[in-house]
Structures are given as structure tokens and as C-alpha cells.
Task: inverse folding
């Protein structure tokens, strides 16, 4: 995926959707390793709202894990509302 210009996540995601086992062999992976990959899948690039949702909504989300870790060390949890959006942009 190296190119001379900047590639957007959407373009990269669409290129990865077309990867096949033969492409992995041409890239240099050994056949024994490729044979252990029963299915090749690609993930679509997430937008800002989806990334914030992943950080905050699941039962075992990263934000809840960090709050718990901070509370174990007697550190008051910070409310990071807009900071999730800032982190999702990076």
C-alpha cells in the first residue's frame, strides 16, 4: 500500500477487499502460513462517529476499562466527552 501520495482510508479499504491468497504469496508470505488462513476478510474504514461508538458503547469498552483501572488506583475518572472525538480523528 505504499505510494508517493497520501492515500485515504476509504481507498485503502477498497483495495484490501480485492486481496487474494495469490497476492499474499507474491508479497512474500510462505504457502504454509497462507494455508493456515481459512478465510481472507477485510474491514471497512470507520468514520468518526463509529470510532467513538466503539470506544464508549460496548460493555467492555476501552473507556470503561480505563475508568476501572483509574479507580483501582484512587484516581478520579475524567469525563472525556469531546476527547473521544479528537482521538477518533487521529
Result:
Amino acid at each position: 500500500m505504499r505510494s508517493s501520495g497520501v492515500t485515504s482510508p476509504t481507498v485503502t479499504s477498497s483495495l484490501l477487499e480485492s486481496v487474494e491468497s495469490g497476492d499474499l504469496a507474491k508479497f512474500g508470505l510462505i504457502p504454509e502460513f497462507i494455508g493456515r488462513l481459512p478465510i481472507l476478510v477485510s474491514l471497512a474504514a470507520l468514520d468518526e462517529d463509529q470510532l467513538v461508538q466503539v470506544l464508549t458503547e460496548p460493555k467492555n469498552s476501552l473507556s470503561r476499562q480505563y475508568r476501572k483501572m483509574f479507580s483501582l488506583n484512587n484516581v478520579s475518572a475524567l469525563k472525556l466527552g469531546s476527547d473521544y472525538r479528537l482521538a477518533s480523528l487521529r
In short: The first helix runs from residue 9 to 16. The helical segments are 9-16, 21-27, 31-35, 48-56, 62-72, 81-89. The chain has a mean pLDDT of 77. Residues 51 and 88 are 6 Å apart (CA to CA).
